[in-house]
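Technical note accompanying the year-one report. For the benefit of new consortium partners, we illustrate the data format agreed upon in the data management plan: each record pairs a sequence with a structure-token string. No post-processing was applied to the example shown here.
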Amino acid sequence: MNFQQLRIIRETVRQNFNLTEVANALYASQSGVSKHIKDLEDELGLELFIRKGKRFLGLTDPGKELLVIVERMLLDAANIRRLAEQFSQRDEGQLTIATTHTQARYALPRVVTAFKAAFPKVHLVLHQASPSELVRLLQEGEADIGIATEAVADVPELVSFPYYSWHHAVIAPPAHPLHQGPLTLEALADYPLITYHHGFTGRTRIDRTFADAGLNADIVMAALDADVIKAYVELGLGVGIIASMAIDPKRDAHLPVVAGEPLFGYHTARIAVRRGHYLRSYAYRFIELCADVLDEATVKQALSPVTQE
């Protein structure tokens, strides 16, 4: 048994059992991939894959149990490398942050600026992703830290921490009738709306709030970016519903917020780390720069096996 065989088992599942894609991903030949799998099955005396001719269709029951161990072993192997780097190159290396556009654009600039000042030799990578892609990047070890509102709190492999609270605000040109108040869901539903795409920045809560009130929201445009929403509100195509942190009172003075209580409740942006993923000391510092209550000891305690039980 060797690590290349374990990588092939994991990659076969990731590539939906397509051995050509597995070979491409691992820079190997397809015949070599097939031989590694057969050698491992012969060594274990088990069939790991369900086959139809030469095609792989899925994992057998032993294969499913083996995959859990393989994932853990490869994670620990990567952790050993990070541990060595931690002590040999304490303030050098790479930190990959997977985050949504909203967090990257509005919440993280201050944190990134402070982090780069403190760790100029660390290569900081900001990977903009959807919430579901962000979870995948964390699970597969391609990102060290994830920051998002959606998805991360419900994944057992991840530990997440509250970052900050936010709400949706309604914006409209100064002369718009909504500014005459009061702001209600019923009043808002009378106008075409521009807001976020499904699955991003609390859109699910917006849809559910209208549905629970028995109202049909006329959402004429959806975008990933609050600045795009603002641009089309300014053109008069509709009323905007955007995240509160995306509003700059000076820069956006031409699109004032409609006064009133938040109609869609409050949300919590969260910082997530995969359980078992070894973090370098500067990664803990990045988290602490986001939220000073999340010091290294606090995060380590939450990630410890005792806490997980």
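Partners are asked to follow this layout when depositing records. The mean pLDDT is 90.
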